[in-house]
Amino acid sequence: MKRFNILFAAALCLSLYACKKDMTGPSVDDSILNYKIEEIPVTQDYVVGAFYYSFGGWNAAVKEEPVAGKYSYPNGKLTAGVMSQHINFGVKGGLDYFVFSFRSPNRDANNFKSDSTVIRTFIDNNGEGKMKFAMMYNFSTGSYGLSATNPLEKDKVKLEQFFQDFNRVVPYLKDPGYMKVDGKPMIYIQNAQVLYSDNNKAIYDTLRSRLGALGIQAYIVGMQDRWTPPARYQIRFQGCVDAVYHQSFSSQPNNWDRWYVLPQAIDQNWKYSKEYFAQNFGADYIPNITPAYNWLITNPTSTNPNYPRSDSGALFKQLCNVAKKNASGKTRLIMIDSFNNWQEDMQLEPALSYGELYLDIVKKQFKK
């Protein structure tokens, strides 16, 4: 009987211990996002591009001021000397190229002229060939009137205009200062995920064929909207593009759960996306990061999390390392959004308050 009581007491203690252990449940230590973003040494230079913005005026809510002084692009014309400063800043920060927007002369003629003027200003001020440049087709479903039920092929006039939009920029693609990957000029397509077509591969095959007839073998990069899974737009990208990039996950942060673990959340998404695009599309992945973001400039009542600047740029440094972790081992391409989007505080460009801090970070993070 005594032996039974001892065994019963021992069993009861074990049972209570097990229940107590179960009641604690999972802890933060068990989270897939509970890890540190390590510093990745640069043993070989990365190829770094930055999106370049043009704008007509300054929002009064912009508190930062450029070292170059406040400038604007009325009709695409830049204040004298500013583009030269921008090129010099870009080179100093280890940027290899700027990416400029170009819009359809058929669907958006005024902005096409403005975009062309900005690109020409860059070329005219880049006489020593210090930097490269690439072009991004600013695709808008609104300008073409496309939808899932109104694909591009449905209107033969619009379809031909789409191809002509690219034909018109062939002289730029042949410029000695144009950015190339494996000898192929890069063409970015913004909002490629909504290039509605019944057969996207046929559209891209025709585009490549027509450019090829003009002596251009293009390296095409398609954009996918932020925080979307890689399989969502498979019909838009598979067999179509050479590389994919997402809108910057660190711009317009609107989810507090993601914000608290932003570098890790981005890292996990990019790791999966990179593998998926490679295995299913045969496409490279290009990480795209942002130095900062301020919702209050365009939306003063916003309660979304801001991505502020700091004296050390600590969060941006983490994102640089996430980008290095997920860059293609073949092309080593990295994008930064942006060089000069002051309207949302996304700029690398030096300001009176933080100086050249963000250019210095880019240089140290991506160049030997």
UniProtKB/TrEMBL annotation:
Residues in the signal sequence: 1-20
InterPro entries assigned to the protein according to its UniProt record, in alphabetical order: WbsX (IPR032719)
Annotated Gene3D superfamilies: Glycosidases (3.20.20.80)
Keywords noted in UniProt: Signal
Protein name: Glycoside hydrolase family 99-like domain-containing protein
Lineage: Bacteria, Pseudomonadati, Bacteroidota, Chitinophagia, Chitinophagales
